[in-house]
Amino acid sequence: MSIDELIAHLDALEAEGAPLNRVLEGAVQALHESDARFHWTGIYELFDDGILRLGPFVGAPTDHVFIGVGNGVCGTAVAERRTLNVPDVREITNYLACSTETRSELVVLIRSGERIHGQIDIDSHQVAAFDAPTVKAVERLAERLARSYVAASEGRS
Ligand code: SME
Q: Which ligand 1 atom sits nearest the alpha carbon of residue 74?
């Protein structure tokens, strides 16, 4: 499924009245299946206490269900308010291992302006799996999911 197809799939889910959690699950499932280099694909949601909590995911279960802002790649992306694309996790110190096989990791924020709703986190067993078109596609999906968060907060889904 291309990113355009994936976004159309989410539009259809929402049009059917699917709640936010179903939209997030559908996004994670389809994103994971969209690229053989994605070995773990999930969403962490940011709560008002500054803790990321694991939402829907596909892949091996992880011990990192709660991550504080500033911790690991996930928490650092929130602290620095930006996408983090780590080509080789063995070269960074602030890393929380989900699987010893992980080599590269991409974290893209789901945000509406200054408001960070959460993030898409993808791990790959391949070094530097996340090339520029892949990052762009995941960022487009994150923008689409941000709209779902806003709709849910306004009671539209
Ligand atoms: N590697 C992440 C933790 C999440 S697991 O990869 C699923 C990090 O360093 O924050």
A: 10
Q: Per residue in 81-103, pLDDT tens?
A: 999 999 999 999 999 998 999 99
Q: What is the pTM of this model?
A: 0.96
Alpha carbon of 121 to those of 21, 41, 108, 155: distances in Å? 16, 6, 7, 26
The model's pLDDT over 99-121, given as tens digits with 9 standing for 90+, comes to 999 999 999 999 999 999 999 99
Pocket probe mutation, ligand 1, options 40, 104, 105, max atoms within 8 Å of Cβ? 105
State in Å: Cα 64 to ligand 1 middle.
7
User: Residue with the nearest Cα to atom 3 of ligand 1?
Assistant: 96
Q: What is the pLDDT of residue 154?
A: 87
Residue with tokens 């990113």: 3
**Rounded Cα distance, 84 and 77, in Å:** 6
The answer to whether 71 and 94 are in contact (CB under 8 A) is yes
Distance CA 52, CA 71 (A): 10
